[in-house]
Amino acid sequence: MDGTLADGVVRVGGDARQRFYDARGYGRPLEHNRIELAPVEAAHLLARDDLDAVVDESESGDGARLGFREFLVRTGATLRFAVYKDLRDRGFYLSPAREDWPGVAGDAAAGDVDVDFVVYPRGNGPWDDAVAYRICIAGEREAIVARSLGDVVLAVVDEDGELTYFETDAEPAIGGSAADADASFGPAEDLPMADVDADLLADRVVCYETADDLYERHFYGQRLFGRNADAGPLQLSLVEGAYLAQRGVVDVDVDAVVDLGRDVEGGRFDRRLRAYAALRDRGVVPKSGFKFGADFRVYEEFTDVDSLSHSTDLVRVVAPDHTFYPRDLSLDVRLAGGVRKRMVFALTAANGEIDWLSVARLTP
Question: How many structural domains compose the chain?
Answer without folding.
Answer: 2
